[in-house]
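Appendix B. Chain record.
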Amino acid sequence: MGLFNRTKTIVEAKLNAIVGAAEDPRETLDLSYEKQRDMLREVQRGLIEVTTAKRRLQLQLAQLEASVRTADDQARQAVAAGRDDLARAALERKQVLAGQQAALEQQVADVQAQQDKLTAAEARLSAKIEAFRNQKEVIKAKYSASEAEVKIGEAFTGVSEEMADVGLAVDRATAKTQEMQARAGAIDELVASGALDDVSAAADPVQAELERTTRTASVEAELTALKGAATAAAGGTAR
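Structure tokens predicted for this chain:
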């Protein structure tokens, strides 16, 4: 538990530092997960080593048990043969082997206790790492969704600004078009009223003289017609 808590503290500190530095928290979460997996593999390697040591001690214990049985059988055979001296030697060897057997059994029990502790620790650590994996995947999914939302919002903001610029350009073009139309209409009106000379007509003096001659002839003809009408009206009155 203490190892996991220390690891958790380190991971949280690194997360805070990295996130504060505007780095991608998804990479940090994956890195933290891999470090926890490394710790789990270390525990599993330790468990394998302890289990191997226990098996080795168990093999030695089995050999000692066989030796104890052999010494016991030798003592029985010596007694049956009337060889008390050999029986004593066999029993003494049996006691020595029995002492070694008891010590080895205690070592096996101690190693078994270590194995049980490591097995429980490995199970707890595996469960916590699996829970962390699920949590980090949820966090990563939320972060990716938020990141996509931010990018969409930024893109939409850019489009809105661009459309606003387009709208301003259209307004300016419309205003300039209306201004040009108004100026053209004003010029046409001034030219028609005679306030402004027609530049195109003034540019050709022969054409201008012909137009003046035509206007003069028209005026003279209209004047003659008026005089004739007045004379006719006066004659009718005198009769």
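Further analysis of this model is presented in Appendix C.
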